[in-house]
Amino acid sequence: MDTSLEKQKKLAYVARRYYLEDQRQSDIAQELGVSRPLISRMLSEARELGIVEITIHKPGARTARLLERLRLSSSIRGGVLVEDGKDNDATNQALSQGAVELLGQLGARRLGVGWGYLIGQLVTWLEEHPQPDSAVTDICPLVGNASIPARNYQSNENVRLMAQQLGATPHFLYLPALPESLEEKQVLCSTEVYRQTHQQWERLDTALVNIGDYPSSPDFASLVRYGGLLQQQRACGRMLIYYFNEGGTVIQSDQDFAIQIPLETLKRCPNIIGVCSANTSAKALGGALKSGLFTHIVARRDLVGGLLE
């Protein structure tokens, strides 16, 4: 006769094969040389003995728990977490939709928009799903325009398209994100164009800020702006064109010539939404959360769950 421990091991084996490995009861019975009804009784006994515990979650319950844990451990007040899609494109579409829904929940009116892959995806989603009754009245870029043709980094064009789909007024920044030098930045930031944009930044109630990884191979502009600082301080992620490390420290350089919303101005915005793409790493998200800048998050649920656990 089986001892109690041996019996529990056999019940656990049958339960694992059935519940975790998706084996049919008839297949398990054939494997063990017993009848299928016996396997059914063993599964029932495993539940009675507590070897198997079945938990049924209400829709959205796990997401609510994750957001509550974020509220308790960071500056996050809320957000939208989405399930992984069948591929990265599907996941990014879900993240884009979640970001637009969050803007509605917050009642965003004066919106600042960053750049990056997910911002470009969000613009594409809006083109397919216009929101003409949105509460947003004004949109402006948080960073200047890139010299590369990639749409994701054309700040003014993204603002124009978003404003068109949200029924808002666009405000443009006709300055480059990365001038040639610190001296050129100082000249450009003394212009009327920059002054007007800075006034828009001061009036924002909501900012959409991309959270991405620090590239494994830094680009030339980053090396010129920071020298060896990014490596020395172990940069792990990027928001706008700022870099930060795992401790949440935003790395500062006296030679930084990027044109983007100043950090002190951004911090005064009531709602700062960090938007992650399907490829944003847990390391980058963790550093972003530790920075204390963000009030809301849009991310994959599994990314947040893995980070917390």
Structural class determined from secondary elements: alpha/beta
What is the string of SSEs from the N terminus onward? HHHHEHEHEHEHHEHHEEHEHEH
Largest sheet: 9 strands, mixed
CATH class descriptor of the largest domain:
Alpha Beta
Bin the helical content.
40-55%
Keywords:
elongated, nine-stranded mixed β-sheet, alpha/beta, 309 residues, single chain, Arc Repressor Mutant, subunit A
Please provide a brief summary of the model:
The chain is an alpha/beta fold and 309 residues long.
Written overview of the protein:
With 309 residues, this protein is an alpha/beta fold. It has two domains: 4-48, Orthogonal Bundle (Arc Repressor Mutant, subunit A); 61-308, Rossmann fold (3-Layer(aba) Sandwich), CATH 3.40.50.1360. The chain is built from 14 helices and nine strands. It is elongated, with a radius of gyration of 25 Å. The two termini are 42 Å apart.
Topology of helices and strands:
Elements: H1 4-20, H2 25-32, H3 36-48, H4 61-73, E1 78-82, H5 88-106, E2 110-113, H6 117-128, E3 138-141, H7 155-166, E4 169-170, H8 182-188, H9 192-202, E5 206-213, H10 220-226, H11 229-232, E6 235-239, E7 242-245, H12 263-267, E8 271-276, H13 282-290, E9 296-300, H14 301-308
Parallel strand pairs: 1-9, 2-3, 2-5, 3-4, 5-8, 8-9
Antiparallel strand pairs: 5-6, 6-7
Helix pairs in contact: 1-3, 2-3, 4-14, 5-6, 6-7, 13-14
